[in-house]
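Exercise: predict the fold of this chain.
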Amino acid sequence: MGVRGPIPNRESDLARPRSRKGSDEQETKRGQMRAVSIPRADPDWHEAAKKLYDSLRKSGQSDFYQQSDWAYAWALMDDFSHYKKTSKRSAQMAQTLYSALGNLLVTEGDRRRARIELQEPEQETTSAAVLAIADYKQDLGVD
């Protein structure tokens, strides 16, 4: 998904938007998102695989996941579980598995390379006008 190399700065940290930099970035092709059903985790998976799969379901990047991404995540967690359960572990297999997790944008660095930034939810604020009306009602004794 993302491009390798140094982790780009957050959009908010830039002096000007990336679109104004005149880079040779190509225009994004767009497709239609489809309904998704998330496969259940295998109860026999290693505890680390279960926790990681559950965290994918709860994380913001999963807003972008489609059915094929969930199938990939499920297959990856199956392999990850098998790896964690074996007594003799291969460094090459570990590197392959952790690299594959990058395709699912698991870390913030992976997401920034793909130009995806997760924002804090906006706090609901009550406008000054609504507060003033509530104060007037309270002063008048009206509910």
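Check your answer against the key: The first helix runs from residue 47 to 58.
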